[in-house]
Amino acid sequence: MGHGSQAPRRSPPEKCAACQRPLDSPLFCSSCRRLYPADGLNLFELLGLPATYDVDPEVVRRKYFELARHTHPDRAGGLSGESQWLSLRVAARLNEAYRVLLDPVLRAEYLLELAGGKSAADDRQVPQDVLVDALELREQIEAARAAQAASRLDALRNTVRSRYQRVLDEAAALARGLPGNAGTQAALRGKLNALRYYRKLLEQLEPGVGMA
Amino acid sequence: MTPSGASRVAGGCVAADRVAMDEKEPIVGIDLGTTFSLVAYVDEAGPHVIRDENGDGRVPSVVAFGAGADGQPQVTVGWEARNHAVENPRATVYSIKRLIGKGPAELRSELPHLTYAVVPGPRDTVRVEVDGRRFSPEEISALVLRTLRTRAERHLGRPLRKAVITVPAYFDDAQRQATRAAGQAAGLEVVRIINEPTAAALAYGIGMRAALDARSPCAAPDSRTGEALLPVAPRASQVGPAAAVSGGQTVAVYDLGGGTFDISILRIENGVFQVLSTAGDTRLGGDDFDRALVGLVQREVQEQFGLAIDAPAARQALRSLAESVKIRLSQAEQAGIELDLGQGRVYQRRIARAEFEGLIGGFIERTLDLCRHALRDAGLAPERIDQVVLVGGSTRIPLVRRSVAALFGRTPYTALNPDEVVALGAAMQASVLRGDRLDMLLLDVTPLSLGIETLGGAVSKLILRNTTIPCRATERFTTFVDGQTAVKFRVVQGERELARDCRTLGEFELRGIPPMPAGLPKVEVEFLIDANGILNVSARELRSGREASIQIVPSHGLTREEVARMERESIAFAREDIAAHRRIDLVNQVEFDTHKTEQMLAKVGHLLEPAERERIAGAIAALRRLVQQTQDLDELHRALSDFGRSTLHLAELGIREALRDGSSDPAAPPPDAAQSPQQHDAQQSPTSGAGDGGAARPPASAADAP
Q1: What is the value of ipTM here, to two decimals?
Q2: CATH level 3 topology of A1-102
Q3: Is residue B255 annotated as part of the catalytic site, yes or no?
Q4: What confidence tens digit (pLDDT) does each residue in B644-702 have?
Q5: What's the rounded Cα separation, in Å, for the pair B278 and B281?
Q6: Chains A and B: how many Cβ contacts under 8 Å?
Q7: Is the Cα dihedral B581, B582, B585, B591 positive or negative?
Q8: How far away is chain B from the Cα of A16, in angstroms, using its nearest Cα?
């Protein structure tokens, strides 16, 4: 899921171009309801938060709801077609910010992208021990499923979950060190790739995954 | 907000707001249902359903085509169409919502259950065929919408141009677009498509506060009107947390209607209605329960008498009967079924509620599975749900209530009339869109993952299901051949791994790529799902920096030109005087009813007492006189309703006759033989004669069902 091209960065305007009152959000003027495009702002800047791995979910939620109240397309009813289109795009970016910032994996991915690190598509490397571990676990899952051994499947689910958590903790530690150097970034890339493997295993362990 | 405007309104401090409301264009909320449709509106007194003369808010989503006495084609919508379905089975179109936005292949299992003809249309669509004329499902839905629009215009006393229309949360892009096109064809700008369970939550979010204040959410009365509980909508000037419960709560909305099932999990906090997840099945509802009963009766009649009930009129009558049995079983422990099959053959049995529950148990279990999916996607255990809300007529079934209560471990909340709550919520969203409710905000999700087909037929997912809308994703494309100026790709919706198992939304073709060596152009395509849950696609070429012109070739649905044509025709409609329109409807209805009743008298009149025969003949003459004389449309409407009631007994006799005629030879092909639309059609084409000049209204129990 791409975050789009890196548009030229802009520093948020300080005054509303329409009514000249000071802006307290880069996205809209609370006085005259004028909207500003979200292009060029990163997802942290959108919500007015520092770009760090550790975020307070409650703060993210509060900021998001506050901004959504003012910028959502439902609020653009009386506005021009152009403003409605702008509102749609701002809302889409805002929703992306909310989703990415509240999810520890997506957040780490995004911080890595901001730091100039490689995407999963560009660098698929996975630490060797994870690869071996994941293969072994998959065999065990298949065997347990073939034997319809529910308790073994439960145990395996717990195992995979704890592996997932351990790798996530390691990824978080690396993400806190961003931008870091190329080595940090490559190590984080590896951890994030590893998480995808464990996620796949967890999905296999879910009963009846996927809609009919 | 002019001073002169303010002076029109009495009432001091609220005057300014009321003027603001008056001056803005009205937007109604419409619940376009499989079985019934409703229209609701928010005014100073709060949200309310707009009702007919009898206090009923429901308009049956049924459209009948016929010829008036003058031979002109005539369209009837609503109760009259529904009440005449048995005698007019091949020209009465119902449950069109199960067809809208779908192609013939997807409808293969659906079509054998319908008594009207459905044929493949262009571009993976279907058409309803009546007397050689073809109608898109959008056009049929537009006729229902036009009826609602007329009702609302009479109520508002002014023209209506804008509406919020609800759809099942699990509707895909094609179904949403088709619904929007139906609105346009009815002369309505569809300012927003919203999801039915979310609309219900909106209505309940307000009502729930009142109920929680009373500290007895589960003991709340099963209100028939739904109005009593809803307090006056706060004025826009009172911005601030208003709806729902402070601190937030999670709500599960279980919505089982006539044709569709949805489950949505929401978090409601400070007036923000945030959908966390949704799941559903757009072809699972009360219709399926009716069909299970119909199947049971067909099987047993076949076993006991060697008769196949397969003529359209007979099947239509059986469908009405099954529906009334289903409704009775929600109140009673058992219900009787009796069919006079002619020649002294009478099929008779009692069905216990437990047996009915056995028939529909599989369907209910499927809804519970979908509830578990939605819970898992929301990351919540059932016990984390603070409130369970039931929506849709089918949630009156005791098994549904028991099953939902067991899954969530709490008594579901049913304070509002399940038939009306969706329309009320749509009206509230309409008032949000008008800018009258700044305290409320709805954040919904897309129900299905969106992806593009990759080489080898796999799906590369771009937007995952349950992503909050509006949302966007981008994908880059390049060329494989030097100088290539166009790229094609296919967009699909669904959860399956292979594109062929998902729903194709469209083939998109990027044109106008500057000629460059292979692999050099970089075309970025943006997929944007708007607040209606509808996809918008745009593209630009990054290397040349210019917007690449993109031609979108949808593989499905109506073309832009077709929608435009329907819209033009509807504007012509809109110019007609509303009252004149109503008069024409009523006069046509009088002609239709009296004509049919005469035919019926001729056919089964000998079964009546001579006095009753005379009385009905007199009533026919009186109604025809009245239509010549009166200008009072309300009087005419009342007279028409009285006429319907006074001929009910005759109508019941007619139904019995229709069933008798309909039970054909054992040699005739059984209904199950129809597998494809074509076969289905061919089987129906020989005129059975049943119903032509036969019965009229079904038993009162079906028509007046709660």
Answers
A1: 0.86
A2: Helix Hairpins (1.10.287)
A3: yes
A4: 888 888 887 877 777 666 554 444 333 333 333 333 333 333 333 333 333 333 333 33
A5: 11
A6: 78
A7: negative
A8: 22
